[in-house]
């Protein structure tokens, strides 16, 4: 009897220490999808099943949302002459995208797709469209070209949609949910410029997320210390082409049809997870939508938006004239890297 108990104790001790070892050794993985590198570090007993679920989810979302895959639901909507039946997931994503468009006064607009295509960013076949062509395409840009019901969507005129500015953020929301479902203790995911940190690091300290210096992309402009939060960066340095000594990047100002020239080099939007609002979630999709939108808005409009809108978030803006502006809520969680040489200001 005594012996059996000892054996059971030994077995359970072994099981505990194995579980402990597994929770300390992360599953680290890199996936190439969504046109970027996705890196994952996951700690916890279910780390390997969570990693599998995450890989499956990334592939599912890529197949659903890609604008270049003719079989994706988004391509089917773009190709249709008439209304298309949609799932509640697509309905929610489109509804949120339209809300963000309206809230940002059109700085974010998923109907910018034909203009992005004309600049060659969709298929990476870059060219400078002529101005007449851009004006013609802008005629079918605007949320009033999207008719959305709970079950169907119709694009009016020649309108097309592209969820590129929000899809990666939405993917991090789904991944956060998968980490919850698998009881993951601690994790980090980064999809291009979209990061999500699940709880703290295994040692209980916050995760550290470095912000790339847009003027020297091998270096950092600073480091965020975060737990249970999203941080999303948009910047002209991320995708661009050069012609005749000029640089053309992939974030388009829907009011002009040209790459946004707002005086900003990069915009990072940060929010804590799980602070659900009324109309919107404070989540990765919101951060992704707003990082693109505030980049288009430029410094003044971005700060005004931060002060006045109902969205709860913080920002780090890096300007062309060498300044780094931080909203007050993130001040104690951000260490600027002085060697990057930006003048540092806190916005209140
Ligand atoms: P990234 O995709 O590099 O993370 P963003 O989240 O800022 O960057 O999204 C940029 C992408 O969104 C572009 O590649 C394009 O497909 C699309 N896009 C560009 N400008 C806008 C805009 N003003 N509103 C909505 N989508 C945009
Ligand atoms: Mg974005």
Question: What descriptors fit this protein?
Answer:
348 residues, alpha+beta, nine-stranded mixed β-sheet, three-stranded antiparallel β-sheet, 9 helices, 17 strands, 34% helix, 28% strand, globular, binds adenosine-5'-diphosphate, binds magnesium ion
Outline the structure in words.
It is a single chain. The protein is 34% helix and 28% strand. It has 348 residues and is an alpha+beta fold. The strands form four sheets. A nine-stranded mixed β-sheet has the order 1-2-6-7-10-13-14-15-17. A three-stranded antiparallel β-sheet has the order 3-5-4, covered by helices on one side. The chain is globular, with a radius of gyration of 22 Å. The N and C termini lie far apart (69 Å). Mean pLDDT is 92; it is low at 1-22. Bound molecules: adenosine-5'-diphosphate and magnesium ion. Magnesium ion is lined by residues 165, 234, 288, 291-292. The site of magnesium ion has 5 residues, from helix 8.
């Amino acid at each position: 009897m005594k012996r059996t108990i000892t054996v059971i104790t030994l077995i359970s001790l072994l099981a505990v220490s194995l579980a402990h070892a597994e929770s300390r050794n992360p599953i680290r993985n890199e996936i190439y999808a969504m046109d970027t590198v996705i890196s994952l570090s996951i700690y916890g007993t279910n780390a390997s099943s969570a990693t599998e679920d995450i890989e499956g989810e990334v592939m599912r979302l890529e197949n659903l949302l890609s604008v270049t895959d003719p079989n994706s639901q988004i391509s089917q909507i773009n190709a249709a002459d008439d209304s298309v039946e949609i799932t509640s997931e697509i309905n929610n994503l489109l509804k949120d995208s339209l809300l963000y468009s309206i809230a940002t006064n059109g700085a974010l607009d998923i109907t910018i797709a034909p203009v992005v295509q004309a600049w060659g960013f969709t298929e990476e076949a870059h060219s400078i469209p002529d101005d007449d062509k851009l004006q013609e395409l802008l005629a079918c840009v605007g949320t009033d070209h999207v008719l959305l019901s709970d079950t169907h969507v119709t694009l009016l005129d020649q309108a097309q949609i592209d969820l590129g500015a929000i899809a990666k953020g939405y993917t991090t929301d789904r991944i956060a949910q998968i980490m919850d479902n698998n009881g993951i203790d601690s994790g980090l995911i980064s999809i291009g410029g979209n990061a999500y940190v699940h709880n703290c690091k295994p040692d209980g300290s916050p995760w550290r997320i470095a912000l790339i210096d847009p003027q020297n992309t091998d270096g950092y402009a600073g480091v965020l210390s975060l737990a249970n939060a999203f941080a999303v960066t948009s910047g002209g340095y991320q995708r661009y082409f050069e012609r005749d000594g000029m640089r053309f990047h992939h974030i388009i100002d829907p009011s002009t049809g040209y790459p946004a020239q707002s005086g900003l080099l990069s915009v990072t939007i940060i929010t804590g997870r799980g602070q659900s609002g009324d109309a919107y979630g404070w989540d990765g999709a919101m951060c992704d939508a707003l990082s693109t939108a505030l980049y288009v808005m430029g410094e003044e409009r971005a700060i005004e938006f931060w002060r006045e809108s109902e969205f709860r978030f913080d920002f780090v803006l890096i300007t062309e004239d060498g300044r780094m502006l931080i909203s007050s809520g993130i001040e104690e969680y951000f260490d600027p890297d002085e060697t990057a040489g930006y003048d540092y200001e806190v916005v209140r």
